[in-house]
Amino acid sequence: MFIKTLKIKGYRTFNSEFTVKLNKGLNVLVGENATGKSTIIDAIRLILLEDEFGRTGIVDTDFHRPLSKAAKSKGEPKINIRCEFDKLSDEEQVIYLPWLDLNNPEKAILNLAIENKEDSRGKFKRKIWGNESESGFFEWELLNRINCIYLPALRDAEDKLKAFKGSRLSRLLKNLRTNDDEIHPLEKKFAALNKDLLNDESIKIANKFIKDNILKSVGPLFGQDTSLQFTEINFDRIVERIRLLFYPLLPESGTVNKVEMFRELNENSLGFNNILYLATILAEFDGTETAETSHKILLIEEPEAHLHPQLQSRLMQYLQEMAIESKIQIIVTTHSPALASSCDLNAVKILSLVNGSANPIFTAVADCCLTTTTKNFLERWLDITKSTLLFAKGVLFVEGISEALVISEIAKMVLKEFAAKQPDKVYFKNLTDYGISIINLNGLYFNHFMAIFRGYKKDEDQSFVICPGIPVKCAGLTDNDPETTAKPTGQNTLPGKNHQLYLIAELIQQSVNCRLYSNLKTFEYDLALEGNNIVLMAQVQLGLIDTDGPVKTQLQAYSQKDWSNSNINDKADAAYFLLNHIDKGEFAQALSQRLSEPETSFAVPQYIKDALAWLVD
Amino acid sequence: MDTNRKLKIAYKLSSMLKCELTDLTRLSSEQMEYIHRYIKDHVFLRACPGSGKTEVIGLKASYEISKWQEQNIGGLAVLTFTNSAAKELNNRIRKYSELTIGTHPHFIGTFDSWLHNFLLHPFCHYLTAYKGKDGDKSIRIIEQDSGADFMYAYQFKVDHKGKKVPVKATEYHFKDNWKTVVGDTDIAKSIISRGLTTTEFEEFKTVKTKFIKDGFATYSDAEFLCCRLLTKFKFLTQKIALRFPVIIVDECQDLSEDQLTIIDILQQKGTIFHFVGDINQAIYEFRDVNPELLMAYIQKKKFLELKLTKNYRSNQSIVDLTSLMIGNSDIVQANIGNLIPAPCILWQYDDQSFSDLPTKFEELILKHSLTLNQCVILARGKSTLDPLRVQNQNNKYTKIELFAIALHCWNKQQRNTDELTNALLYAGKFFFSIAYGGHPDVKNQYCPDGIDPVEWRLLLKRLLDEANVLYPFKANGVDMTWKNWVVLVKQFLMNKWFLLKYSSVTYDKIKNGIKSPDNKGDKYVHEIHSFTNLKNPFRTTTIHSVKGETLEAVLLISHKNKQSKGGHHSHWFREGNFTEEHIRFAYVACSRPKHLLVIATPMLSATELTQLKKIGLVP
């Protein structure tokens, strides 16, 4: 079984009932800060009584207070958390019988309610029950069967791996002990050692000194006998003294690292200590493979902490494998594009803040009705830079590197222009302030990428069906791409050969969040056609040419002309010429540099303005 | 069983259980046989009174629990019928087994609590489509005699003997998939027994359906609903049978027809049942318990019958007398000697001497140095005992009387727990009935919905404390009549009404309801506790409530009137006919004492006297 849905109400960020859908195995929660990722994790810890937290973890500020209310005002009267498990095996159906949903025996329900009323000991009254009825007794043993382990975000792995009572290592070792009744070999060895110790001359002398002094100080009536021993002779105590050491290199095959080579953890890097800690926890899960704990849940906040990107990806793959192999439901929160880009897309759950909505919006990529082709495509194409789209408040998709480089500069100009036109509205200075990411697709893949956002799918019969999508505005800029030799103008548009153009109309018809915008020919051509842009663009290109020749002469001519009132076809010829004599990447680099200089004036084609308006308005 | 084998088993058990070998060797062969027996057969263990049944079940359950496989996903259920019996079983099993705090996955408790916790509460709403209250779909169990106001919504009128008689949904229940209706109160029984018209039957059904759909049920309804649930949701039955592959039912003679149906459904899905009990102690006919049905079931399902025939409780004279009562020809062996030469005594009383019975009994007890609190005065019905009781349990007080009794109990010198409990209970009932609506929490002093029980109790305490001017029902040293006292009560209520938090009613609305009990306006209020002057140091109770107990001495009082239903001695001792429930009642009463049994009858005729002498009673 696994947690399929979690419903949270009145807890921290969540006012009205908030539903989280989870799947078997790995779940990756992404989203900007303060969207409630940790609250989801804490809700699971609360209801499953994860140690250290489940029993006490509530303070008065955990009860939801709307932002409109004063910070010290009393929150919601109640916190409700409801956990729905699914796919219970035949055996689990018998075990969790009182929690079963009779309409669907594979489903079980667990509820927790906490009242916003402190008793004299400062505790909040809570009630936990299975299924739909609160009466009858609650079998705590059922809850104890669910083994929930939590790893906090800023974990101090070194501290946790030290030797102390209740340490992770001692728990692992105790779990591994199969027969409680027999004397453990470790205990025998320590007992023998103790005996030996007593025969040691220095110990004997020390003991004698102590004994004599006791006798002298309190006299024979109150005297006590003493014995110097190594105290840890009981298994539980022994294992509590065990700690983990490390050596940074694996032994060569067939050999082992020498015991004395191992170092203390404080000499290790934070990142590696983190990994060691995680490995210990996962080993503990392995060790508790008994009937008593049939369901395993691992909650990890930001596993990327202290890890470099490659290690993050490797770790994610490992967790994914563990989730499948050991049947652990793993729930991870992350801000790391590296993690998000290296896991199964269906594991990704996105939390987005949307204006006007009391709760954040929860979207599981798995629910977005991606076709297998699209899903496979995205998984292959989502690299670290592209996966930032999962964290953005808005996304601008572009075809290539030129757009990616130039648009952010152009956007500043456009935003300034918007602000001038509409002084009553607030416009930010650049796209970063809006949290909008420009994602370079390196090709025409708008249909695949927008599939996660668009909120509809196309059925086999070509009809459209509404489905979930990440509730984030997204726009695409694509080239019309008519014949290579074509010189289209505003008066003389030409049909494009871009196979994604159908999306423009489709998105307007069907999608709430997505739009695609196109131009006359290509990005640079359309830029050049606008206003007096050719002058500036020719100057930029001139800066990149070292050789004299007809191209240079031509560009010089362009750069000295005033194009404001020129014939449109002359402009088109010039734009065409320019387009055919630039290296796109190099040119874009130089152009954006030039555009970033203050007081540069540049006219922006309407399709780009439209796209930006869609994203920011 | 030969001694060698017995020793072997005892040794094995002592290694598995927290029980000394010497204690185990003391067990009889019969007891050992059952404890050690492989559990996979249906067994009926017929246990005579005082046969150490509870001890045997305790050991048996402990033995099974210690053998229970960890990977076995279900658990053992040990069910009985009263909370005290359940508590006792729990103690025994804990004593011998390794159970720590909980009993999971095993269950030890009453049949009802088992049924309610594993079937009724979690699942009943799937059957009844009850919408729930604040998301809680638990069923509320309503007592059969609930007089709560909301019950008027589930009341209808039936023409009966020329009158319109009100019937509440709590007064009857259905069985056989709504095909049969059964009365649970005298009036409902009487109406149903004369035959219902189709319209009437439909009316019974409609009202009951509404009651159930609104989330209520009586205990009988609960059993009926669970039967339906198990029939309708086959898969649930299967899971329950796996969850409880073995169920031991203690006091199996108390199984009702519906409970037997539930057992049968589970038995067909593979649950193994062990019935332990004594058919001769079946005294729950009023609850639809018919020992013949149980016996038929045991035979039909070919339960293996084992016996415990040694009586470890009573002396031989008492054992012989009880054997004669039920016509048992087997010789039951007593295991204790006679402490008193003639321990079965017959007394006769008349109207004058009746109230002296407790004193007379006390003298006898002291003479033989028996422990007073181990001796009990018993009768079949409450009416026989009421004149002897200090605590009148009668529920039919008017509102004002409830308040008077509450005050009386509250202000008692050296108030004991019973008096404290009663004071709060009656006060709770009084204040709930005048000031609140909705459903009270009967278990918590009629605590109204939405009030914390502790807060409610504290409120009652405050009200009782503040009402000191109303007690002890005197004005200037002179006893007050109800008429005069009511005036004071009204004044008190008016002044203190503000204390009744969350009440939606104003004092003016209810003031007319505060009045003297009918026809008692000129009577003295203190008469309500006049019976408390009676001297009776004994626990004085009905036969039902001592079931399963071991006592030192019993005074069993016959009703003075032959018309009393089963309460007269002539109903108890009948030659030739042993199947009547009355006999089983007397049997239960007479088999309780270890040392002394006194039967008190009204004045006897010569024939009656001879007959009673014949069975071993000494006048």
TrEMBL record, chain A:
- What positions does the domain OLD protein-like TOPRIM occupy? 390-457
Signal peptide interval: none
Q: Where is the ATPase AAA-type core domain?
A: 26-340
What does the UniProt keyword field contain?
Endonuclease, Hydrolase, Nuclease
Q: Which GO terms describe its molecular function?
A: ATP binding; ATP hydrolysis activity; endonuclease activity
Q: Where are the transmembrane segments?
A: none
CDD domains of this UniProt entry? ABC_ATPase (cd00267), TOPRIM_OLD (cd01026)
- Record's protein name: Putative ATP-dependent endonuclease of OLD family
Q: Which organism is it from?
A: Mucilaginibacter frigoritolerans
Automatic annotation (TrEMBL), chain B:
Which Gene3D superfamilies does this one have? Answer: 1.10.10.160, P-loop containing nucleotide triphosphate hydrolases (3.40.50.300)
Gene Ontology biological-process entries: recombinational repair
Checking InterPro entries in the record gives: DExx_box_DNA_helicase_dom_sf, DNA_helicase_UvrD/REP, P-loop_NTPase, UvrD-like_ATP-bd
The reply to whether ATP-binding figures as a keyword in the UniProt entry is yes
Alphabetized, the UniProt keywords read: ATP-binding, DNA-binding, Helicase, Hydrolase, Nucleotide-binding
Quote one Gene Ontology molecular function term: 3'-5' DNA helicase activity
Write the protein's name: DNA 3'-5' helicase II
